[in-house]
Batch of 2 targets.
Target 1
Amino acid sequence: ELAPLGGVRFRKFGFHVYDANLWAPEGKWSWQSLFALDIRYARNIKGKALAQKSVEEMERVNAGDEAKRKKWGEQMERLFPDVKAGDRLTGIHRPGEAARFYLNGTLRGEVRDAAFTKLFFGIWLSPRTSQPQLRLALLGRS
C-alpha cells in the first residue's frame, strides 16, 4: 500500500513543466523498497526529448558506462511516448530488479536492470541530483 510522501511543481525558465509526486510504503521512502514517482506534465514534450534528458541527468548522477547509457536511452525512447499537457507518466521502482513505466495508468513496459533503475530514479532522488530542492520536496522535507 503506497501513500503520498511529497510533491513539487517543476518550472524551467519560469514555465510550468510538470508536477511530481512520490509515493512510498506507509509514506516512508527507501532505495530498498518499492516506490512510485508520478509526473503530470503541463506541457507537450516529445518522448525522444524525455529519453535524451533522462540520459543526461543519469550521467550527471553517476557517469557510468557510455555503452550502457546508449542502450538505456534507446530503451527509454521506445517506452516514453510523446506526452501532452495533462498526461501522467508513472515510474515504479522495483528495488534491485526493474523500473516499470505507465502512461495514464496503462503499462508501457519496463527496464529490467538494477543499475538503470537506481540511476533513473536518482535523477530526482539522488543527493547528486541537479535539482536538490525538488528532491527535498519529493521526500517531504521542504
Note: The radius of gyration is 14 Å.
Target 2
Amino acid sequence: MTRLDAARLAAVHGVFTDVDDTLTADGKLDPAASAALGALRAAGRPVIAITGRPMGWSVPFALEWPVAAIVAENGAVALLREGAGLRTEYAQDEATREHHARRLSEVAGRILREVPGATLAQDSPGRVTDIAIDHSEFAHLDGEMIERVLAVMREEGMTATVSPIHINSGLGPQDE
C-alpha cells in the first residue's frame, strides 16, 4: 500500500486486514504496515483489523494504531474508534454472553482434562466470547491433539476455527 500512487490510493474505499503476521512481525506493528496504515488514514480511508485475538488484547492496539476499528474474537466484538476513545459493540447481548461464559468455562475445563498437553492461550484472560487453546504460539499440539480438541468442541455443540497459533471456539454469531 505504501507504493500506491495517489490515484490508485484514491480508488481504495477502505481496507479489511488480518493482524497477526500481516500487520505485525514478532508481535509488534511492522514499520511498513504502520506506514501503510498512516497513509490510508491520511487519505481518509478506514482500516478495520480483524483478529481471533481477545478483546482485552485488542484494546490498546485499537487506541494506538491508525485504524478505524478492530474486530476481535473472530467477529464477536468490535472496538470502534470514537475520538480518543473506543465504543464496544458485541454480536451477543449481555445476558447471552454471561450464559455462554459459563458454558465456555465448562468446555475449556473438559479439554484441559481430556487432551494431554492442551493449554489455554496465554491471552485467555482478555477473552469475553470464546475460548482459545494454544497449539503453536507457546505450546505445541500435533495434528492428532488438535483433532482431539476439535472433537471435544464439536461434541459440546461448538464450532471451532484453527488459526496458525490457536484453536478458537465460541457459541453464537461469531461462529456462523
Note: The first strand starts at residue 15 and ends at 18.
